[in-house]
Amino acid sequence: MTALDRGVHLRLPAVDRVLGWPAISALIESHGRSLVLQAARDELAFLRERAEGGTDEGIAHGIHERVDALVVPTLRKVFNLTGTVLHTNLGRAPLPPEAIEAMVQVASGASNLEYDLGTGKRGDRDDHVEALLCRLTGAEAATVVNNNAAAVLLTLNSLALRREVIVSRGELIEIGGAFRLPDIMARAGCKLHEVGTTNRTHLRDFEKAMGTKTALVLKAHASNYSIQGFTAEADERKLGALCKERGLPFVVDLGSGTLVDLARFGLPHEPTPAQTVTAGADLVTFSGDKLLGGPQAGIIVGRASLVAAIKKNPMKRAMRCDKLTIAALGAVLRLYENPERLIQRVPVLRLLARPPTEIAALAHRVLPLLSQHLGTRGQVDVVPVMSQIGSGSLPVDLLPSFALRIKPVGSKKGSGRWLDQLAGEFRKLPIPVIGRIADGAFLLDLRCLEDEAGFLAMLTPSPE
Ligand SMILES: *Cc1c(COP(=O)(O)O)cnc(C)c1O
User: Fold this and answer.
1) Model-level pTM?
2) Which in 12, 186, 293, 422 has the greatest CB count within 10 A?
3) Atom of ligand 1 at shortest range from CA of 221
4) Which whole number is the average pLDDT over 208-236?
């Protein structure tokens, strides 16, 4: 039945008339004409399609709501209660205040980004992080680009264009869909020379593959998977020594690349760039925003001659970091100079090392208000769960944590939809809350909840 059948007249005003209404002129005043015009057209089209008429106030109200929705920034802060600390879709590492302050300083005015204050001559943006990176990794030289995928691409393109790169079949990795080593290799203009098998690759496999077309040997850290059982990989030191003997650069893509031994904080061991350099790698690449806990960046450290060749590649210019990244990275690296206070000052490390007892206590403090917020709609309790490090770091290692578990009251029927709806409701909070659905419940892992007051302030007692 259409509106006409129901006897309602479709008297929608023309868009030009609507723009002249005082309430809408005020909107144009504050948000600009084209945005309001878009909202007005959308609202009128919506009413026309639904074959509904409308009062002037109703239409103006609809336009207002559409304008509000259009001006909300799409990129917003959220609470990551998924239990995955380094969540790529949720922006990975939270930055320490020192890094944020450093970004604010350079963002608000001019800086000596590429200017040498001593000589008054042109400088190099890498200078703000290179010495720090060399001190922290023991490497001779360092450079930075936008992310580790770029670091790998640039390294391969600079050192192995139209030549062969030897990689173990056990390390032909894919990270999050878009980063697949064979694809990156092809785009870098290199020929992939696979050696060994999926589960076992030996030093002699590399040795046999080395020839006149070989440009380098690449070892990629198994970031997001582990091969277990009957396995073998070439010893890194021996492979490094073999490469040296043959005069081939040995490049290691570490992926996460923590700068400290995580075992100090009771976390699983992960090789550091310093250890990898010591083991004989000529170049090591790693991310800035994984276990390092800094801004998105790709860090390349190693031999001075190879780093110089990489910096000369015109592609480096297309992948260079901006001043905000350099400022934040420098500030985070400076925190690493004092390992004693690191765990409190680098948020990623603080969250990873957060004691389960502290998380449990937090969960019990939040429980009553959350329960009140849900009213009779759901039941909440505190349960032990396992958090993940995320971003392909230490894929098989889980960290004991605690979550608030929300379940529907009574019948299990239709609970899947109920849970989806509940998850959607939490995403609509002023600061969206992202949890996870597992085992017939909505789970909020509190490992990454530090702003307890901000979270509680959004929980209102249920209207029921
Ligand atoms: C994460 C990862 C990358 C990609 O790093 P981004 O900083 O996300 O670009 C490359 N290689 C390995 C081994 C990784 O773990």
Assistant:
1) 0.91
2) 293
3) 13
4) 85
